[in-house]
Amino acid sequence: MSISKRSDLESLEAVAGNGLINRRMLLGRGIALAGATTASASATLTSAGAEPLPVDPWSLAVGSPIPLYETPAKYEKHVVRTLTNPNHEPRTSNARTPHHLLNGTITPNGLHFVVSRTGFPDIDPAKHRLVIHGLVKQPKIFDLETLARYPMESRICFVECGGNSGPLYNKDPIQANVQAIHGLVSCSEWTGVRLSTLLEETGIDPKAKWFLAEGADAPSMNRSIPLAKALDDAMIALYQNGERINPSQGYPMRLLVPGYEGNMNVKWLHRIKLIESPVMAINETMQYTMRIAGQKSWQFYFPQEVKSFVTHPSPGLTLKGPGFYEISGLAYSGNGRISRVMVSADGGKSWAQAALQDPVLSKALTRFRMPWRWDGQPVVLQSRAWDEAGNVQPTRAQIAAERGEPRVNVPVTAFPMGHMNVITSWGIDGKGEVKHVYA
Amino acid sequence: MSMHSNLLVAAALLFATGAAAETPGLGKSVTEADLALWDISIGPDGAGLPPGSGTPTQGKAVYEQKCELCHGKEGAGGRNATLVSTKDRTVTNYVPHATTIFDFTRRAMPWQQPKTLTADETYGVTAYLLALAKIIGENDVMNAETLPKVRMPNRDGFVSKYPEKR
Fold this sequence. Notes:
- The complex is a heterodimer.
- Chain A has 7 helices and 23 strands.
- By secondary structure, chain A is an alpha+beta fold.
- Among the domains of chain A are: 115-284, Oxidoreductase, molybdopterin-binding domain (Sulfite Oxidase, Chain A, domain 2, Alpha-Beta Complex); 307-437, Immunoglobulin-like.
- In chain A, the strands form 5 sheets. Chain A has a 5-stranded mixed sheet with strand order 5-4-13-8-9.
- In chain B, helix 2 packs across helix 5 and helix 4 (98-108) crosses helix 5.
- Chain B has a domain at 52-149: Cytochrome Bc1 Complex, Chain D, domain 2 (Orthogonal Bundle).
- Chain B contains 5 helices and 4 strands, in the order H-E-E-H-H-H-H-E-E.
- Chains A and B meet through strand 4, strand 5, helix 5, strand 13 and strand 14 of A and strand 1, helix 4 and strand 4 of B.
- Strand 5 (140-143) of chain A pairs antiparallel with strand 1 of chain B.
């Protein structure tokens, strides 16, 4: 197959370096390819021997009883989160989503990422209350039963920790997989009551410009958030993917501020106070601020900016010889819909446009797919995303120019830089082994 | 337009307006006094600071008993965060407002027993850390008056990305 390398972005849909296939061409040839696959499969079986396929044992035995609440098949026990504090020592616990073992865009509830200062509280839903007070006309208190009677809405959106992908700011490429590097982002369908609906009921003092959101957990974690977000798309979420929110996601209710940095989506929400200016909580001063070389530290950096990464293949998912593969990954932006994802197999020399899996939703994970024929030679895979607001995922050079060159190497559990949405590169050697590289 | 259809239009408008503004109205009214134990937020201007006071010496005793296990001798760090140091992010060189130290200590510390420190103990621990960082004197008293007036070295060390970033 001939490979044309073109630098003009507009012409890249045709083909790009190292075997990226025009997705439209592939669609057009779908039937022919399927036919070829069938033919080759039957040829293999015929040559395997005269024995017919046996009837498998599970086709000869009664199945297991259906449980009240089902968990994944026993063969999927390796599809779990990684934990940074499994013995529950007195420090923060992180759990990361295994994106390399999932497909689609919705994160199963049990695999949603967690950052928690003291684990999750045991909240009695019958006694939990949400109070809205401060610069309102009339402070109000709501219990769960009451909120359940309000008009609800569902929306699919991602939540991402502000520190996700931080190790990409290491001086040298950290040898870790997708889960370790990018595992602090997940996506769910959240259902609940618009915060603006409740604020209609309390009324708003014109002096209010921000609101404080506070959890009922042991450290009563709190954040100051612009009131504009409350009136835009903030939600008091009660359900996650159809069922009540999981304990470590904020049961029985959490604040959802779509597209904003994870910790602002306050879990175990029990208090909202309308205020004139930020309270300067620990999570907006010590934490979730970014020290930038030669500049003042960045504070109140809310949106998780446009980002993408390849999940398949990725470190740990070794390619089994040359041939056809689908490159796929996740793209998302806290500023709206993903408008385009480009994929490169030659370290960014040439790019081809990936197919975006429907539905492409604002502030939600979007799956991209790119057909690829690997010739067995070393390659470097990258993806780069654009959002509808016109933002483009930055290169390493752009990040370095804006924030300074990375100078140190830290462990994968550390957070050397926040809001790292830089392009990720996977180097694949001749044996098909995938490693994190800088390109 | 007939009166009938006029009425229909008026009814439709009324309904639309009503629907947009309508909530079930099920929230129960409360007063700020009802929320006295809940409203623990403190502004950088000191709004919300409780009565009470503490000195570095008083705070040292509390710190050694309840904080040192995780945060090390004199805030030098241990199994958890370093609090006083010119390296890393600490009280010494990073926290922009002294009120934040009081607020976080009161709401979240000690890790195993949050919200158990008295106001005096919290002022004391805050004073101890500020004195270790050489931001206040060893005999300075911290209370609702003095704490917000403490000038943190990194007070002007931040730039807001809101609303510059979309």
